[in-house]
Every structure is written in structure tokens, then in C-alpha cells.
Predict the 3D structure of the following.
Amino acid sequence: MMATINFDNKLGFVEYKPDPDDICSLCGNNAGRDRLVEAKNDIRICEGCIDVLTEIKDEKISKRNEAAISEIMAIEEKMPDSYTPYEFVSAIVEDIRAGKVSSLTFKY
């Protein structure tokens, strides 16, 4: 809080209100402009929230990767005892195109 002198010679306090440009749009902390990353539509994200978002993103990517690996391993289990790497990769591509590997999509 900042002290101020009123015109009636009384000491008073003015409630501190930070500049809205210094506030993180996610957590609401007063991080300061230098510690915020600006995004679209005047969204400002502090370094702490960026770290948390990075962890969340990494976890989601890891889960998708694990799901893809599991689905691909299921394809491998269906292959005949003797198969070539080409046949295995072809089976993977066919299943992805057919939508049988839900964690992966094939973009043409």
C-alpha cells in the first residue's frame, strides 16, 4: 500500500492496484511486464504458468506416444511369424489410414 496525504491533512492509504498489463491472464499474479509472454487477444502468461503448461503439454504428448506405441505393437503381434520390415511398416500405414490406430492420423 502507498501512503498519501489527503487535502484535509490526514494520513491515509490508497489501495494499490497493479497495471493490468502486468497481470498474468491465467493465475492472476502481478508478474510484471518483463516476465510475461504476450499472446493473441491481450492474453499475458507468466513464466510460472508457462512452466506448468509445458509440463501438461509434455504429459499429453507422452500419453499419446504411449498409446501409439501400444497400438502399433498390437499390429506387430498380429503379423505372421516371419515378416519383413517392409510388411510391418505397410501394415502400420494401412491401419493408420483405416483409422485403426486412434492415436495417429494420416495426413495426405
The first helix runs from residue 47 to 78. The chain has a mean pLDDT of 87. Helices lie at 47-78, 85-97. The beta strands are 2-5, 11-14, 36-38, 44-46.
